[in-house]
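User: Can you model how pyrazine-2-carboxylic acid sits in this protein?
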Amino acid sequence: MTHALLVIDVQNDFCPGGALAVTGGDEIVPRINAAMADFDAVILTQDWHPAGHSSFASTHDADPMSMIEMPYGPQVLWPDHCIQGSIGAQFHANLAADQADMIIRKGYDPAIDSYSAFFENDKTTATGLDGYLRTRGIDRLTLVGLATDFCVNYSAVDAAKLGFDVTVNTALCRAIDFDGSLAAAKGGMIDAGVNLI
Ligand code: VGL
Ligand code: ZN
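Assistant: Here's the modeled complex, given as structure tokens:
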């Protein structure tokens, strides 16, 4: 099998001091770097929103972490984060981004959020990552990064649905854990056939 490490959204805004900080988000960086050598390929994702993105609470004059109904379903409204070209959107300075074969950006459509590295939140618009992995013969994925209960979770479930052999290394992830989201994510990943280690 050809086994890739998929490193989800290890960006400044998801680390302590960032706009949507995940507790301990920076702690996992050294061990993610060390793990890279164990894989046939390393792929990074980068949350990459235009200013005024529809997933931002500020765009709707709403409170961060409130919910809105979008044409594609319910959507959490987040603080402004990972704005294209901003410091917050950059990878954590210590992440060994030079080791990546591929960087895939997501969330650039102003009207649709994209938690998953494979499909936007409408569940139909593809990012192209599936084709990239298949054309490289990659059939096995280990996911690490931020946040366990959102972008890691959605990416892992989509990867499993697409037929990849998927593992989430939870020791190398950190969660937002908002309103029971971590427990729900773990259940959903297990139901989808994702291996949690
Ligand atoms: C994420 C919320 C909004 C994530 C991205 O990387 O988990 N969460 N955008
Ligand atoms: Zn985002």
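A couple of observations from the model: The chain has a mean pLDDT of 98. The radius of gyration is 15 Å.
User: Helpful, thanks.
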